[in-house]
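Case study 2.
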Amino acid sequence: MYKVNNSQHQPAEHCRRWLAPFATINALIMAAVTLYNSHWPNELSASFYLVIGMLLHFAVISFGITLLIVLLTQWKRLRPHRAKLAIVVFSLAQILVFTNIKVFSLYHFHLNGMVLNLFFSGALLENLAFSYVMWLSILAIALLIFCAQALIVMISRKLLNYHQLSNRHHFGVFFSGYIILQLLSGCAEAFGWDQITTQNRFIPWMPQTTLRSSLEKMGFDIEERKVNQFSSSGKTDGLNYTHAPLQCHNKKPINILMLVVDSLRADQLTNEVMPNTYALKDEALVFNDHYSTGNATRFGLFSLMYGLSPSYWKTMLAVERGSLLFEQTRENNYQHFIYGSSTLTFPEFDRTVFSTVRDQLQQGKFTNSAANDRDISDRFITDLQKLPHEQPFFGFLFFDAAHAFQLPDNYPRPFQPILEKVNYLSLNNNSDPQPFINLYKTTAHYVDSLIGEILTTLKTQNRLENTLVIITSDHGQEFNETRQNFWGHNSNFSVWQTKVPLMMLWPGKAPASINELSSHEDVVPTILGDVFGCTNPHDDYTTGYSLLDLPKRKRGIMLESWTDRAILYDNHLYLINPLGDTDIVDLNYQPVEQPELPPEILAENIKHMSRFLRIRQQ
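Prediction:
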């Protein structure tokens, strides 16, 4: 007699019934590790919602992945490899969850399209210093996850002996619970149950549900909440920019040189850290209370080069409208020297700021930021030596070493103890920041040495007396000074991530130390007005002011990030999340009890955000 292999004759449902406990165990792991790294609320009801919401959310994600596996294994060639496919797919899913946990702990937003865009474009690996220790750590974690998935498959098959529930039963229970969760979330948003709605930001990729209009139609009394006037969802046909053509009457043109150091915060402009730049303080205009308009390169450089609120980024990108600054330099026959140590095509500055001069963009030739900083500095000096003295030029050098924390091997390390390699996986709220800060200070010291060489060249060639030199940064850099586990930038609007140096060595202008609040929005109107003689009212083309005529009254400055906005006013930050809710913190990101933002400041910033938009008529 022949022995029959019963497994070959079992129904397809039975052969894959182990997928249900497999998906459930994975959901429990995803929820547990995310909850462990989450901020726990004080209210019991909010904690209960967070736990149940996290579990149901990951359960639905896990069963969605399971459905994908079932569909793929309908193909006969894949059917015998169902377990292997499940191990691979769920391992990748768990790696994604663990990656998200680290992203959220560092930057306080979840893994999103922006981060994926950075990765797949290559810009992430180009701009972050991934040491070999970090790569080995990532590899070890990945291998551990793959082994764990194989063990979970074995456990899931053993569990079949203890229950008779089908995959459909499991999915039905979790999906029904998830629908209830979304209904609860929608009701919480409508009725203003903030202790519930505030937990949604801790649940990765949680969709925002609103039942406001439906509940109103059913006769419920819905709480009136503030409309988020900062939403970018309003439909536009594009720009109404400028309100009038620029009327400029250029005097004898002077050279313009912008030296922008990525991630350089204001407190690094000292004799100890940046001696060459600091030595100019007695000869320059120094702005002591100057802020970038964002905590990321995209928004900081945008306002610096446009003189506009960072809220216009998407619109300018959509129409590929360049900076007015280059309309004037081209009209006045300036030679352009535009060098990026890192790429100037991501963010898409070649399609925004530099769109009219994109054919003149140059990039560092190496894979190391320190080498690229040296490269663009040397190339600028060489190109400048070939330029006729009577030919005006516009120079823009964007240094990256302080952002990438990279140094030449033979460069002195004056600040000790120093971190030689950055391992982002090891950072937490208890990490000693000083070695990391010393590495950062050393990179700033290195970039300053290059700035010193450039300034010496200008002086040697007798160009310094005819060159406006601007030294600044796109944003700051934090090393957990707020004690909230913030490292780097693009995670909050504290003074550490947004206050940057601004120094202008301006021939013919008396040196001064200016204490009025200023912003990156103010740089371009200053250049257009005082270098190119543009006489238009500022409302025609900018949301900023002239740095030479800053308002004496208190002003509000719009700050932008990938996910949120804030208004800086009177040494406080009014944080505005995508739902329009506002929290008030001081410059060190500590909660404070303060009056509401004055209505006139709020109205002024709303006006700035819409001033140059052409609204589509419905």
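The two ends are 81 Å apart (CA to CA).
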